[in-house]
Write a structure and sequence with these properties.
Elements lengths: L13 E5 L20 H14 L3 E3 L20 H11 L4 E7 L5 H15 L3 E6 L4 H5 L10 H20 L3 E4 L4 E5 L10 E5 L3 H10 L2 E3 L5 H17 L5 E10 L3 H13 L3 H10 L4 H6 L5 H4 L5 E4 L1 H15 L3 E5 L3 H11 L1 H7 L1
Parallel strand pairs: 1-2, 1-11, 2-3, 3-4, 4-7, 7-8, 8-9, 9-10, 9-11
Antiparallel strand pairs: 5-6
């Protein structure tokens, strides 16, 4: 098994997409496009990303939706299954699947990603997620109410350590705090270690990323906050003699002119689904009064789950580059209201400018 790519700091800015694996995509609104949770839709989006020369496609894992008038994410596909199919369909783009560590045994995941390594010819990656939204897992009897936030990360560190041993050793015996393996075998091994990425803004999450991952997906209230988070996680990695790349999500509302894009943005936000948005925020652990009060702001923004850039091609390119330059991020995972309409236009009219500036 060969190593992951070395010295990520020297690489150009990466641009990828967050696939709409759940119905409604990433905008929680009755007046926005409403992608269905279908393989056909995601396949076309991934093939377009591959053709345009984007760097990666990633999908989330989601096991329960947020209801509301839009039944947001009431229908979802399974990430690893879908990304394996997309690995076969695509030729160049990296394919990153999401795994909830509290749902899948490490020996099972080791075998699945060794298989995905072959299907993708070494293009696969794993988004490691420490399951945190109780109702997603309590419905299956898979929620550990006795686990604290830090316990879940300690569990996941042991889980990931075993996965990586199974990727490189012919036999693994381990008697840990959470798992027992006796002469556990998982061959063939991957040709190269799958790329490991993870998200989370807590100190425990950032330390986990710094210690184990190739990529860190960050969130913050503003661009200075993203820069601070990125510098912090990179410093934590450097303390361990490691380096990693930093990413954030960004929604792109693109049209022929700034005025047309602004009108589209306002229309998409007009029908924001307050009930679904509140339910999502409750799943984060916010108190009901705070979750509900947060939906009382600018409705055009309430429908969107990420930072948004809005405009014609030149304006969007300028805003995206500002996002990268002011934060020091190594990449962006992009979201579109309608991937099948918006992604080709982005690839033709915006991406060349972004690549020229990388």
């Amino acid at each position: 098994m060969t190593a992951s790519p070395a010295s990520p700091a020297a690489a150009a800015t990466e641009y990828g997409i967050f696939l709409p694996i759940g119905n409604g995509g990433w905008i929680m609104s009755e007046t926005a496009p409403h992608p269905r949770a279908t393989y056909a839709y995601n396949r076309e989006a991934a093939l377009t990303a591959d053709r345009l020369g984007l760097d990666f496609v990633m999908s989330m894992a989601k096991w329960r939706g947020y209801g509301g008038r839009t039944d947001h994410w009431g229908e979802t596909l399974e990430s690893m299954t879908m990304m394996s199919a997309l690995a076969e369909a695509t030729q160049r783009v990296k394919v990153w699947a999401t795994v909830h560590t509290n749902l899948f045994h490490p020996a099972l995941v080791a075998k699945m990603f060794a298989t995905l390594d072959q299907v993708s010819d070494g293009r696969c990656g794993m988004n490691v997620v420490v399951g945190a939204y109780e109702h997603e897992f309590s419905q299956m009897g898979q929620w550990r109410s006795d686990f604290s936030h830090d316990d879940r990360y300690r569990y996941t560190e042991e889980w990931l350590h075993l996965v990586q041993r199974l990727w490189s050793e012919d036999s693994v015996t381990a008697h840990g705090e959470f798992f027992t393996l006796d002469d556990c075998q998982s061959r063939p091994h991957p040709s190269r270690r799958p790329t490991l990425v993870s998200a989370g803004r807590s100190e425990a999450g950032l330390r986990f990323q710094a210690a184990h991952c190739d990529g860190s997906f960050l969130t913050a209230e503003d661009l200075p906050g993203l820069r601070a988070a990125g510098e912090h996680v990179k410093a934590l990695a450097a303390e361990r003699g490691r380096s990693l790349r930093t990413y954030a999500m960004l929604t792109v509302v693109l049209d022929e002119t700034d005025a047309a894009a602004e009108a589209r943005f306002r229309e998409h936000g007009r029908g924001y689904d307050a009930e679904a948005i509140t339910n999502m925020k409750l799943s984060w652990g916010l108190p009901l009064d705070r979750a509900m009060s947060m939906t009382a702001g600018d409705e055009a923004h309430e429908a969107f789950q990420t930072a948004v850039v809005v405009g014609g091609p030149a304006s969007v390119a300028e805003q995206v580059l500002t996002h990268v330059h002011e934060t020091g991020l190594d990449g962006l995972m992009l979201i579109f209201p309608d991937y099948l309409q918006d992604l080709p236009a982005f690839g033709e009219l915006v991406l060349p400018t972004l690549r020229a500036e990388s």
